[in-house]
Specification:
This protein is α+β, with helices and mostly antiparallel strands and about 120 residues long. Helices cover about 45% and strands about 20% of the residues. It has a four-stranded mixed beta sheet. It has a two-stranded antiparallel sheet with strand order 2-3.
C-alpha cells in the first residue's frame, strides 16, 4: 500500500449539520429517513460507533471524515452524489463506493463488509 494512503468518507451533509440532525432526531423522535446513511451507519449521538471504530483501527489505513463541501474543495471528483467512500493514493483518489451502494447498506456490518471488499482490491 502506498505510504500516503487514506480512506476518505464523505458525508451527504453540510458542515455543522451533524449535531443539528442528532438534536432533531432525539427531541422529535427518530427521523424516517436519515439525510446521510453513511453518517447513520457509523455515528451515534455520542460519537463513532464502537464496531466501526474497531474496524477502522484493525484495517490499518488512516481515515478522514469530510462534509461534502470540504471534499469538493480538495477533489477532482466534485461534484458527485454523496455520500461516498474514496481511497486516496498519493495525489489521486479512487471511488470505492458511491451513494447507491452506501445507501443500500442497512447495518454497520453491511458497510464494514463493503469497505473491506473494496479495499482488498488495492491492498490484498
Amino acid at each position: 500500500m502506498h505510504p500516503d494512503t487514506i480512506l476518505l468518507f464523505v458525508y451527504n451533509l453540510d458542515k455543522g449539520s451533524l449535531s443539528d440532525i442528532w438534536d432533531r432526531q432525539y427531541s422529535q423522535g427518530h427521523a424516517r429517513t436519515p439525510p446521510c446513511n453513511l453518517c447513520a451507519l457509523i455515528q451515534s449521538p455520542v460519537g463513532m460507533k464502537k464496531s466501526w471504530k474497531r474496524f477502522i483501527s484493525v484495517l490499518g489505513i488512516p481515515a478522514e471524515y469530510l462534509y461534502r463541501e470540504e471534499f469538493g474543495e480538495q477533489s477532482a471528483h466534485a461534484p458527485f452524489a454523496s455520500p461516498g467512500i474514496f481511497l486516496k493514493l498519493g495525489g489521486s483518489s479512487i471511488l470505492l463506493a458511491g451513494a447507491d451502494e452506501i445507501n443500500g447498506c442497512r447495518t454497520t456490518d453491511d458497510l464494514i463488509s463493503l469497505v473491506r471488499q473494496r479495499v482488498q482490491r488495492y491492498h490484498p
